[in-house]
C-alpha cells in the first residue's frame, strides 16, 4: 500500500481527500493529523486477509489494501482517486451511483450480497461474483465508508454443486418412491426408517404406520435359511440376496426376491440396511405350474417313447432342412445297423456310417431326394415310398417310407430341451416311418413268379382264340360257306375284343414282373415330345364323342431321349383314365411346357371327372390299387396302369404326382429330362 505522504495525497496537488470541504493551505496541522490517521488505517488494512477499500461520501477511493489490488488486478495508483464504480461492470455503474448516494444519506453497517447477484469487474474485463460488507467510519470527523469485498466464486460453485446433489437426491427419492419394487431402509436394530410407495402397494401399510417398527416382526419374515445366516452374510460381505416369505397387512403371504446391502458409518459400524424386495409370488406359481406341466409331459413322452419302442418299424422325428434327429425308437438302430445320435443331420449320419439308400429301381438316392427332405420342403405328406437300404455290414433291406410333416409347430416348443439342442423352433418337424418289407418282398417275388408263369401260359391260348375269332369274322365278311347272322357277328366281335383286352392285361402283367425281376430295359432315342403327345391325343379322341381333348404346348418342339413306346404308354394310360373316370364327358386339358432352370419337360393332364377320395390317394400308385368310388360306379380296371406310369417315369429320371378332389376332378403331372434336338 502507498504511504499516506504520497504526493498524490498532498493538499496542494490533490485539493481534497475526504469529499468534504477542501483543506486550505493554512490548515497544515489538520492535514498532518488526517494523513497520520490514514497511515495508521492503511497499516491495519494490510493486516486483514480480506480485500478492503475505503471511499468517501462521493464514492472516491481513498484507501485500498494489497488483497483488493490482487483481487481486481489493478495497481494502487490506478485505484486511488477513482470512483468505486470502476470496479463494477459498465452496465451496473449508473444504477450503482444512485444506490450509493442513497446509502450515504443514512450510512450504517450492512452486508450486501446475501440473496443478490453482485458482480465485480477486474482490470482484464473478467467478472466474478462478490459479497460486500459495508461499515461507516469517521476519519478526523469526516464520514467515510469501508467495504470488505469477498470473491464468492468457489462458494457459488459449492452451492451449485450442492443444488445439483440435492436435485439428484430428490430425483432418486422420487424414483425410489415410485419404484415398483418394495424398497425400505432399516437401522441396525431392524427398525424401519424409510418405506417407499412400492412397499405400501405390496404390503398394504403406509410409511407413517410402519416407521420405527421392527421389519421382521411386522412382516413375520420367514427365512428359507436362518436369520443368523443372513445377518452373518451381511456382516461379512456387506450384501445378501435370496428369497423371503412375508405376510401382508391383509394376511396374505408373498414370496419376495430380496436384495440387502449393509451401510456402515465413518467408524465402520453398521448404521443401516437397504432392502429391495420384488414380489415373485406369481412367477413362482407359474414356475410351479410349468414344472407340473413339464412333469406331466415327460410322463406322457415316456409312455409315447415306450409305445414307439415296441413298434417293429423305425420311427424318427426330424427337424429342419438338414433333418436333424429329435427322437427315435429302439427299432431305429436295428433298421440302420448303427446308432443315429440325437441332433445329428441325417446326411452326416449316413455318410459317417457308410449307409446307402436306393430307389425302387436300385439307383442311388440323392441326399436332397430323401423322403423326409421332400416332406420338409413341400409341407405335404410323402407316403408309401419304396426304397432300399444298404447297411454298414453290406446287407440290404427293402423298406417302405412315409413322411408326415407337422403343420402346427406349436408342438415343438413343448418338447423337452434335451430333445431340441440349439435347434430353431420355427423349423418344420417331420415324422418319418421306415417299414421293413422283407417278408412282403418275398411274398411279392413268389406272386410275381406265379403271375409271370400264368401270363406266359395265357399268351398262347389267347392268341389262338383271338386268331380264330378274327378268321370267323373275315370268312363271314367274304360270304364263304355258312354265313353268320347279326347276333353271331356281335358275339364273335365281343370275343375278339375281350381276348385283346386280356392280352393287354397280360402284357401289363409281364411288364410288372419284368420290373420286379430287374429284367426291364428301356430303348431310348431322341423324341419330339410335342409331336408324340399330339399323336396320342388324336388317336384317343377318335374313341370318344363326349370328351374334348385339347393340347397346349408352349414350345413347338421339345426333344428328350426316351423310350418312345413307353412314354406313349404313359400318355395313353393317363388320358384313358381321364376319359374313363369322367363318365359325364367334358374337356380334358393336356399342357406341355419346358422348365428352363431344371431342363425338364413338364406334362399336366386335367379332367373334370369323379376325382379320387382323399383317404385313398396315398396308395394310388401301388399295384392293383383302385379308388372305391370307381368300383362303386362300375368302372372296370386292373389297378396296374398308374403303377406302370410311375415306374416308367421314374426309370426315365422323372417324377409323377397328382392333385385330386372327389367330385371336382383330377390333375396328373409328370416331368421328364429334356435336351436340345440333335443336329441332322
UniProtKB/TrEMBL annotation:
Every PAC domain range: 114-164, 238-292
Domain called Histidine kinase: residue spans: 453-676
GO cellular component labels: plasma membrane
Keyword presence, Lipoprotein: no
Catalytic reaction equation(s): ATP + protein L-histidine = ADP + protein N-phospho-L-histidine
Keywords (A to Z) from UniProt: Kinase, Phosphoprotein, Transferase, Two-component regulatory system
InterPro entries from the UniProt entry: HATPase_C_sf, HATPase_dom, His_kinase_dom, HisK_dim/P_dom, HisK_dim/P_sf, PAC, PAS, PAS-assoc_C
Domain PAS: 37-90, 168-213
Principal EC category: transferase
Protein origin, superkingdom: Bacteria
Region (Disordered) location: 1-20
Gene3D superfamilies attached to this UniProt entry: 1.10.287.130, Histidine kinase-like ATPase, C-terminal domain, PAS domain
Enzyme Commission (EC) number: 2.7.13.3
One Pfam family in the UniProt entry: PAS_4
Molecular function (Gene Ontology), one example: phosphorelay sensor kinase activity
The protein's name: histidine kinase
Classification of source organism: Bacteria, Bacillati, Chloroflexota, Ktedonobacteria, Ktedonobacterales
